[in-house]
C-alpha cells in the first residue's frame, strides 16, 4: 500500500527505528535510550495502488480525533508538512511587498513555538518552520474519553442537566464505558 514507511517506537526505555521500502523491511535498529513511550509512523501512499495520493487533512484529523476520544488518555499528533503552491505564492508576494530578498535566512525569533495543541475554538494551527513552510499541526488528547466526547458534541447545545452521567465496568471478556447527557 505504500512506497515507503518509517516507524519510530519508544518502548521499555529504548528507541527503535524500522523503515520499509515497497513492503520490504530494513533491519530493526536500536537507537539508544528513550524517555517516555510512543509510536511515530510516516507513510507514503503508493500511486500505483491508490487512485489519489493526496490526503484530506480535515478528514484524517476528524478520524484521529475520534480515535483519541475512544481511547481514553491516548495522545495523537497529526502534522501536515505539505506546502501548497498558494502558500509559496503568498510568501513570495509578502516578501516582495516588504522589500526583502528571498533567501535561506530566517530569524528564529519570528517563528511561533511548535507544539501547539488542539483548541476547541481554533482547531487548526499553522506553524511557520525555519524553512518558512507552513504546516498544520494538531494534538488530540482526551483524558476522560467518552465524557470528553459528549462535552465536545454538546458544547453548542442547551443541555437538560449540566452533569454528564458516565461510568465504566469490566468483566472477564468485556469492558464498557458509557457517557450520557440529554440535550
TrEMBL record:
Keyword Lyase: no
InterPro entries named in the record: HATPase_C_sf (IPR036890), Ribosomal_Su5_D2-typ_SF (IPR020568), Ribsml_uS5_D2-typ_fold_subgr (IPR014721), Topo_IIA_B (IPR000565)
Keywords: ATP-binding, DNA-binding, Isomerase, Nucleotide-binding, Topoisomerase
GO BP: any one term: DNA topological change
Listed EC numbers: 5.6.2.2
Presence of the UniProt keyword ATP-binding in the record: yes
Gene name for this UniProt entry: gyrB
Protein family per UniProt: Belongs to the type II topoisomerase GyrB family.
Top EC class for this record: isomerase
Reactions catalysed according to its record: ATP-dependent breakage, passage and rejoining of double-stranded DNA
Organism: Corynebacterium macginleyi
Protein name: DNA topoisomerase (ATP-hydrolyzing)
GO molecular function: ATP binding; DNA binding; DNA topoisomerase type II (double strand cut, ATP-hydrolyzing) activity
